[in-house]
């Protein structure tokens, strides 16, 4: 990888470019309160972040990304509409790929604008598309909003829909749950016996492990409800599979999505947002026939994306994406205490950009 001085210089160049698009330059502390990140992601974030402690702050994490602190800053004091840019280091554990550095630079561009979300999506993507042109990168897109709408429309209980939504970003776990809820696979061994039996039979203690009697009874009631719930209709499961398996260019996939929406009306609004984005991209000079769409793209990113997602990749398996981004409206609501504003943004990794340029020299 490139030397740090060269990476800093490239980050400064990108920062200046984004500032020239009307974005305000912002900075965020490297040390972030852990409470906010844990509230957002649960304990899973510990596997990806570097956790430490501070006498005043309490439990803290080295900044795993910029989006969360930028959103917090904007929701506390930002005017609307707003555009921000930033550059600096983030820190993430790389247990799945020890060859990748756990400390690297990001340069980002974020748009907070409620006037026309489709136009904002197109603005961010077109800016990155132009910035990275000429490098032979593959641009891929997806739409988490389509998948979330499809899951929300499944014919099943709220409890099952929440479980599927929670694991939407964990494809293997999601598939296991979906197959079980559809009746394709049996429940885990011992679950039926637990639901039918009395775990307190013959016991005097009101606590088992770290759970009290009320918690255990609530869990057993949920198991019984789940066992009595009919399977998700097979047709809906197949349509969801079709949606996740789509691989087409943006222009071709739109009609496919409308066909699916005939039998899965829950995604109709998301499909129309998709179509509006395609038109906005054309106005920005981006040809949808040259951009790939993947139905499951974005399912292994951080969980705050809830709409349009994108990435730019080199044709090298040893390199991470050069750039990634997407829409995160719900995150602004969570961090805004009920207030919200449509928001979309993305980041470029300058060291990967330099690596690609160097390889092509």
From TrEMBL:
GO molecular function per UniProt: glycosyltransferase activity
Alphabetical UniProt keywords: Glycosyltransferase, Transferase
NCBIfam families: PRK12295.1-5
Residue spans crossing the bilayer: none
InterPro entries: aa-tRNA-synth_II, HisRS-like_core, HisRS/HisZ
Pfam families in UniProt: tRNA-synt_His
Official protein name in the record: Histidine--tRNA ligase
Residues in Aminoacyl-transfer RNA synthetases class-II family profile domain copies: 1-217
Subunit-level organization: Homodimer.
């Amino acid at each position: 990888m490139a030397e740090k001085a060269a990476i800093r210089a490239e980050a400064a160049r990108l920062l200046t470019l984004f500032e020239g698009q009307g974005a305000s330059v912002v900075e965020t502390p490297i040390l972030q309160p852990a409470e906010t990140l844990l509230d957002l992601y649960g304990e899973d974030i510990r596997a990806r972040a570097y956790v430490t402690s501070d006498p005043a702050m309490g439990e803290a994490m080295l900044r795993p990304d910029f989006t969360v602190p930028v959103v917090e800053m904007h929701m506390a004091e930002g005017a609307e509409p707003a555009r921000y840019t930033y550059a600096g280091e983030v820190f993430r554990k790389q247990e799945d790929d020890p060859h990748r550095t756990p400390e690297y630079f990001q340069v980002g561009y974020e748009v907070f604008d409620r006037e026309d979300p489709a136009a904002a999506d197109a603005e961010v993507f077109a800016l990155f598309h132009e910035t990275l042109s000429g490098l032979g990168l593959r641009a891929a897109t997806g739409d988490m909003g389509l998948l979330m709408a499809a899951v929300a429309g499944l014919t099943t209980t709220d409890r099952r829909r929440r479980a599927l939504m929670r694991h939407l970003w964990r494809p293997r776990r999601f598939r296991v749950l979906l197959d079980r809820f559809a009746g394709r696979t049996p429940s885990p061994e011992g679950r039926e016996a637990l639901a039918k039996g009395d775990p307190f039979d013959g016991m005097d203690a009101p606590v088992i492990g770290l759970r009290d009697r009320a918690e255990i009874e609530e869990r057993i009631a949920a198991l019984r409800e789940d066992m009595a719930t009919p399977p998700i209709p097979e047709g809906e499961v197949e349509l969801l599979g079709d949606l996740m398996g789509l691989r087409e260019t943006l222009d071709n996939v739109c009609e496919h999505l409308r066909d699916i929406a005939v039998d899965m009306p829950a995604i109709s609004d998301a499909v129309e947002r998709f179509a509006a984005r395609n038109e906005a991209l054309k106005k920005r000079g981006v040809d949808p026939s040259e951009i790939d769409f993947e139905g499951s793209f974005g399912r292994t990113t951080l969980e705050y994306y809830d709409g349009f997602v994108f990435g730019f990749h080199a044709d090298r398996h040893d390199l991470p994406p050069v750039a990634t981004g997407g829409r995160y409206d719900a995150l602004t609501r969570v961090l805004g205490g009920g207030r919200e504003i449509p928001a979309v943004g993305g980041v470029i990794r300058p060291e990967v950009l330099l690596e690609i340029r160097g390889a092509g020299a």
